[in-house]
Amino acid sequence: MKDVYAALQSGYTEPIRDVLWGHIYLTPELAALTKSEPFMRLYRIFQLGPAYAVYPGATHTRAVHSIGVYHLARRLLRNLAERGADAWLTPVGAVSFLCAALLHDLGHFPYTHSLKELPLARHEALTAEIILREPIKTLVAKAGGDPALTAAIVDTGLPVGSETETVFYRKLLSGALDPDKLDYLNRDARYCGVPYGAQDVDFILSRLYPHPEKGVVIDGKGIPSVESILFSKYLMYRAVYWHPMVRSATGMIKKALMGGLEDGVLKPEDLYDLDDPGLFALLANGSHPLFHLAEKVRAGRFYTVVAEFPFDEDLHGNLLDISRRSGYEDALAAELSFSGETLEPGAIIIDVPEPISFETGLYVTDEDCYFSESSSVFNPGVVDSLIKSLRIIRIFVDPEHENRVKSHPELEGILHIRKKWLNLA
Question: Whose CA is closest to 145, among 57, 72, 193, 73?
């Protein structure tokens, strides 16, 4: 315990002043990671992409979020070490976990999750690659961590054998009450000026107990904390993350990038290691009929909603394939063209929110069951209803054509037809 406690407590002399958590302390070696070129890129990626168009304060970055995740990860691990986790923790493992928390977004794509749906490598895999090459590899080692372990904690696709410590850290970094979620919900709510994401972190940490296979478990007193997380996540998706204007902007960027990838104008490698300005510069300097969408987004000329309806897996399942979706958009544009005028490519965008999950895998010790089977009101049926209420398909149109599309004499019939041909193979 003494060695693990020293790894988590001694030498943390470098303060960073954070809006959300106050002073965050790092060792000089951990602080050096935040000055590295791969980490500095995160200062040029907005955490919430275009959300600033709705909430002007939402200009915080992936970098400040990452520092916050590190801070909560250190607090969490100290608590768990004092409650028995030191039996399977090592000093090198503890520092590797802190490095993983600090660096977990190194491979993240620019412009929030616009690129997540595209045929690209997983950002966790890209993060692991960055950790395993210079300069991060050497900096992690100098901080007292193991670069291979740090990479394996972030990228669950990497093999770890049966190592209890690695599996434990993975479950800490990604779960129902993980430091990532605790930071982004609180931070996003603070910068957006909304109350939905605020969590009682002190109380949450007090209700978590270590388990070598399950990561952390809670007792019945911790159930309200999980419920708060789940409902906060729901409200943040509803009001912030999937606000119609945010969906419009991200849909426009995805449309431009997917067109470039499908036509060979862009390669996946062109999109890795970019920041927000770099993404817009790439599209501004490229040649493709759809790249003008990025300039419209940059200038704040977002597409507007002309129709919306709930996602139905049986009816709209084909729309989940982004490469097939563009064909449906072209067909819909043809249906909506009239009076001798044709909607140009990219004038119509069908937006389908990706599948999301509300993690409920925590074990409740005194009820001897998992959270989804506990006394919580958030049973699987309730969670499923929350997800269904969020997944709204929207049809966006270039505002230049909005009035003409809305005045189409057969608009309602076309929407009905669309619901039929969307289900065709």
Answer: 73
Half-sphere exposure of 376 (CA within 13 A, CB side): 32
Residue 68 region, left (φ>0) first, then alpha (ψ -120 to 50), else beta? alpha
Q: What is the dihedral of CA 357, 69, 190, 188, to 10 degrees?
A: -40
Segment-wise mean pLDDT, segments of 10 residues, the chain, 425 residues: 86 97 98 98 96 96 98 97 93 97 95 81 96 98 97 92 86 91 96 93 94 92 93 95 96 95 95 95 95 95 92 85 87 79 86 86 93 93 93 93 82 68 51
Alpha-carbon distance of 296 to 293, in angstroms, equals: 5
- What is the rounded (10 degree) CA torsion for 52, 56, 62, 65? -140
Q: Last residue of a domain, which of 186, 215, 241?
A: 241
Helix (H) or strand (E) run with residue 392 in it: strand 392-397
Domain that residue 27 falls in: 2-241
- What's the alpha-carbon Rg for the chain, to the nearest Å? 23
Q: Are residues 93 and 213 in the same domain?
A: yes
pTM of the predicted model over 0.70 = yes
CATH number reported for the structural domain that contains residue 201 in this entry = 1.10.3210.10
Q: How many domains does the chain have?
A: 2
**3 state DSSP class of 404:** helix
Domain boundary among 223, 241, 259: 241
Q: What are phi and psi of 308, to 5 degrees?
A: -155, 150
Strand, coil or helix: 246: helix
Question: Nearest-CA neighbor of 364 among 208, 139, 230, 245?
Answer: 208
If we measure between CA atoms, which residue out of 114, 81, 115, 82 comes closest to residue 97? 81
Peptide bond into 110 cis (omega under 30): no
Residue 382 lies in a domain: no
82 and 104 belong to one structural domain: yes
Backbone torsion region of residue 119, taken as left when φ is above 0, otherwise alpha when ψ lies between -120 and 50, otherwise beta = beta
Sign of the dihedral through C-alpha 302, 308, 310, 315: negative
